[in-house]
Design goal:
The chain has a domain of about 90 residues. The protein is about 55% helix and about 0% strand. The chain is built from 16 helices and no strands. InterPro entries: FA_desaturase_dom, Fatty_acid_desaturase.
């Protein structure tokens, strides 16, 4: 196959928008060098940002959830429920940071997040730790060994609504996992193996099977699963005291949170890879930045996730430093550079692009 022209070798004014296909075999080394050199003074996780952000988001989320439960009208309950879902969504997204920051960077933050957010939402950090990092391995990204990749742009049109709507059932599935499947797995070992391999990770690739946890992660799994079991039965037991309504409202809020995250996942990548390994540059261009201007992306892609492509260049960069890293790279590399190829205008444009691609697949003989 004839190799495509590397856009970085053409005069800037003549360059077309860079694409993944142009960098399957070789990297844009100038961009990678700039990413390294221009951000040397960044990268330190700041407790003064992480702790208040996480605690305030969780506090608003739980406070407005209580307001939704106690509301005296459906309209008021819906309004508080939406605010609660968005705030809890932001609090949940710190699970992404936990997988990348150095283990000694924020003492106590992982345990506090699990107690305040992860276990109450039945998404403890072990469901991401040891899994998400596989998505960043150069030889596994976009392949069948990547737990967080599906070639959605190459699938049938019905796959997109199905991908989003299945998230509505996530809270029920998590409640079932911790309340029933976990204790049954203690007695039925094959069930325990199946639950661990197929229902213990935030993944979208149905072919992925999780390997056994080891070392310190195995220890964290034990106490987090116990916490999830106790909390799941606390929620179920609350029905006898408070009735069905509080739990149903909480599940609706959690479902909305899951759907928002699934929509964000839908546009986190272009999903155009058919399973072959790619260079770092190709992975970057298959990923998505939705930079300013515009505040909407900060709501549906919080905690630095609006810079998801940049994150794939620098996975350990704290979320609060990504805007400055983006500004420096954008200024240095300019319009129509390889770096600019991963910058997109918003969710609507991205969903439309993926949908059009699936329509082409749907028309194929």
């Amino acid at each position: 196959m004839e190799k495509a022209l590397n856009p970085s070798t053409a005069p800037r004014a003549e360059r077309a928008r860079a694409t993944r296909a142009q960098f399957i075999e070789s990297d844009d080394k100038d961009m990678l060098r700039a990413a390294r050199d221009l951000t040397k003074d960044l990268g330190e996780a700041k407790p003064g940002i992480y702790w208040p952000d996480m605690i305030l988001s969780a506090g608003i989320g739980y406070g407005t959830l209580a307001a939704a439960i106690l509301a005296d009208s459906v309209t008021t309950a819906i309004a508080f429920g939406i605010i609660s879902a968005l705030a809890l969504y932001r609090a949940l997204m710190f699970i992404h940071e936990l997988t990348h920051i150095h283990r000694n960077a924020l003492p106590g933050f992982r345990a506090a997040w699990n107690l305040m957010v992860g276990i109450p939402m039945l998404v403890p950090s072990f469901m991401y730790e040891g899994v998400h990092t596989l998505h960043h391995k150069r030889t596994q990204y976009g392949t069948v060994e990547d737990p967080e990749y599906l070639p959605l742009a190459l699938m049938k049109p019905w796959s997109l609504p199905a991908f989003v709507l299945v998230a509505l059932l996530a809270p029920i599935g998590l409640l079932l996992r911790f309340a029933a499947l976990l204790p049954l797995g203690v007695v039925i070992r094959p069930l325990r193996k199946m639950v661990w391999e197929q229902a213990s990770a935030l993944m979208i690739n149905p072919e992925f099977r999780r390997k056994p946890a080891e070392g310190n992660l195995a220890k964290r799994v034990r106490w987090q699963e116990i916490g999830g079991f106790v909390w799941a039965w606390t929620l179920i037991g609350s029905i006898s005291v408070l009735g069905w309504q509080p739990l149903l409202i909480a599940l609706c809020v959690a479902s909305l949170t899951a759907v928002i995250n699934q929509l964000r996942t839908l546009v986190a990548h272009l999903w155009e890879n058919d399973g072959e390994p790619m260079t770092v540059t190709a992975q970057f261009l298959d990923s998505v930045n939705v930079p300013p201007p515009g505040l909407a992306a900060e709501i549906w892609a919080p905690v630095g996730l609006r810079y998801h492509a940049l994150h794939h260049l620098m996975p350990s960069m704290p979320y609060h430093d990504l805007p400055e890293a983006h500004r420096r790279l954008r200024k240095e590399l300019g319009d129509n550079s390889t770096y600019d190829g991963a910058n997109h205008s918003g969710m609507i444009e991205l969903v439309g692009r993926i949908a059009r691609s699936t329509m082409g697949v749907g028309r194929a003989p």
